[in-house]
Amino acid sequence: MLPFLRESFGNPGTPHPSVGGVVQRAVREAREETAQLVNCRPNELIWTSGATEANNLAILGLAEQTPEGRRHIVTQVTEHSAVLEPCRHLESKGWEVTYLSVDELGLIDLQQLENAITDATSLVSIMWGNNEIGTIQPVADIARLCAARGILFHCDAAQAVGKIVVDLEAVAISMLTFSAHKLYGPKGVGVLFVRDLNKQQMISPRQFGGGQEKSLRAGTLNVPCIVGLGAACKLAAAHQQRWHDKVVALRNRFESILLDRLQHISINGDRDNRLPHISNIAFYETDDEGLLTMLPEIVASTGSACHVSDFAPSHVLDALPVDPKPTECSLRFGFGKGNTEQETRSAADAICRAVEHFRASL
Ligand SMILES: Cc1ncc(COP(=O)(O)O)c(C=O)c1O
């Protein structure tokens, strides 16, 4: 990224070969690296400022050109707010939105999805893996079902890309979104994949101007961040499996220490079918906010880290049909390639002591 912050200030839109050329090449290369990670064509990608913008462009951009009789979307209750909020916005404009419920593991029911689809349905939007509990949805089955019914399928893969295999050749997703900062890239850049972008007009733009990104997302490109996203994708493509295995081993070690030492705890989400980096644990007979304040050395969270108010009760945990509800007593831990075994053990130890202390004080 540094050369594009320090020396190469050219605008990729400029026709001047020595000013624009180097920048154009860098953006082209980043597009190829990004496309390679998810196995799509470079010209199917639109740069955005992140997954929020990409989700909004996918959902609202599609809505803009959907005819009157097809104003129905199917999504799920545990989506990120970057999908739920555009859907709610459309509801306020007269659209109908079906929010599928999830089971105790956080999974949607395919039969329920099939039943929810009507002649008016234009879009199904279901995320790849949940950002709070990590549950991975059966995206290949959802894609097949949508294709068979002639309905577009949008998938928020912000938490999945770079962590597990996301292969757009293998899975017939119509639109997919992700963000650089979830795969060790810079914040403030992301991407929207639109299948066969050159052949069909699936979406309308949300912002208008200089015609960048095939006129679907006008504005001068954020070149340093785009270059950073490309580099992050290239590294992820090369090291994903190794990072995955390391992170899973650390997370499993962490969870086994907690499960061995503490009573009345449970792992939220689908333990066997989870994103590698997420561990969301209910510590019954404690309080999530209280525990967090007892653990200042640990960067954990009670809900979605992307929310402005971090202490908002989690709509994801609240949606799980389990008794007792884990909503007020759960913490979400994230693991990354830079974490160590030592950190994992000392974090688990500090958490055990905090939980025991909390319970003893009741
Ligand atoms: C599943 C999911 N979707 C969307 C977003 C929003 O992404 P961004 O911060 O790039 O706008 C996030 C952020 O954490 C996320 O986890």
Describe this structure in words.
This is cysteine desulfurase. Catalyzes the removal of elemental sulfur atoms from cysteine to produce alanine. Seems to participate in the biosynthesis of the nitrogenase metalloclusters by providing the inorganic sulfur required for the Fe-S core formation. InterPro entries: Aminotrans_V_dom (IPR000192), Cysteine_dSase (IPR016454), PyrdxlP-dep_Trfase (IPR015424), PyrdxlP-dep_Trfase_major (IPR015421), PyrdxlP-dep_Trfase_small (IPR015422). The strands form two sheets. The protein has a seven-stranded mixed sheet, sandwiched between helices. It has a three-stranded antiparallel sheet with strand order 8-9-10. It has helices at 2-6, 17-38, 51-64, 81-92, 110-116, 139-149, 223-261, 288-294, 315-319, 341-360, and strands spanning 45-48, 72-76, 96-100, 121-125, 152-156, 175-179, 190-194, 265-267, 278-283, 330-334. The chain contains ten helices and ten strands. The longest helix has 39 residues, at 223-261. α7 (223-261) packs across α10. The mean pLDDT is 95. By secondary structure, the protein is an alpha/beta fold. It folds into two domains: 2-235, Type I PLP-dependent aspartate aminotransferase-like (Major domain) (Aspartate Aminotransferase, domain 2), CATH 3.40.640.10; 240-360, Aspartate Aminotransferase, domain 1 (Alpha-Beta Complex), CATH 3.90.1150. It binds pyridoxal-5'-phosphate (PLP). Pyridoxal-5'-phosphate (PLP) binds at residues 50-52, 80, 82, 127, 131, 156, 158-159, 179, 190, 306.
